[in-house]
Amino acid sequence: GLDAAARRDELMAVYLKHRKQDAFELLGLEETANLLDIENAFLRFAERFAPWRFAGGELKALQDKAQDLFLAAGRAFGELIDVERRNALIQRRQTLRRAPRREPQTDRFAIRSELLDSEVQFKKGRALMAAGKYREAIPQLEFAHDFDPQNSLYRCELAYCRFLNEPRRAAEGALAELEETVRIDPKCGLAWYYHGLVLGELGDVALAEPSLKRAIKLMAPDRRPIEALKNLAARSSRRSRR
């Protein structure tokens, strides 16, 4: 069987594409596939990405993604064995084929090497964050973190992006991730910086201030934590005057 690294690569390559694929593409089927073909393709896919296969060891971090793929395959199977839904899908595909294509047909199933490069995906995630597209950035940052879970930058960037995407719901989890990051890597200035920013947004000035001061020392000459500390002091001053 595949070793852990190969299984991780296989899962991430499929996971990063699956939301853009229709039922035929996900299960690797032609439109002429019969019921037996569909059943066999689904069983093969389900066996490859059954969540229990990712339940332990270094693959455990990928179990949620395996679950997503497993459920997506179930939905694809349901669509293809329903005659009306399958015919509707075929009609949509035919319409798309008649429209101008941006990429050659041969590229559809190609796995680009950059999909398996955590640094490339991390940079894409950072670019999406900078553009304010936090929801779109999360899968890219998750990919980088899953490939290199010991990388403190990947971990803290993902935690902060989740917070920016859903500040109220994700605040507690983001703080826990950032605190774990600085516990493992106390010299990760970016983690201290994001920790201070999240606490500041939550109004906890007393805890935010020391985190930002630590970030200033570790991130010099980057001025972002300095500016964040100034903003924190200004907000605190305005509140005290009310």
Strand count, sense and closure of the main sheet? none
The CATH architecture assignment of the largest domain turns out to be: Alpha Horseshoe
State the helix count: 12
Outline, from the CA principal axes? elongated
The secondary-structure element order is HHHHHHHHHHHH
Q: How much helix, percentage-wise, in residues?
A: over 70%
CATH topology of the largest domain: Serine Threonine Protein Phosphatase 5, Tetratricopeptide repeat
Task: Give descriptors for this structure.
242 residues; Helix Hairpins; Serine Threonine Protein Phosphatase 5, Tetratricopeptide repeat; 2 domains; 12 helices; 72% helix; elongated
Put the structure in a nutshell:
Helices cover 72% and strands 0% of the residues. The protein is mostly helical.
Strand and helix map with partners:
Elements: H1 4-18, H2 23-27, H3 35-49, H4 63-81, H5 83-98, H6 118-130, H7 134-147, H8 152-165, H9 167-184, H10 189-201, H11 205-219, H12 224-241
Helix pairs in contact: 1-4, 1-7, 3-4, 6-7, 7-8, 8-9, 8-10, 9-10, 10-11, 10-12, 11-12
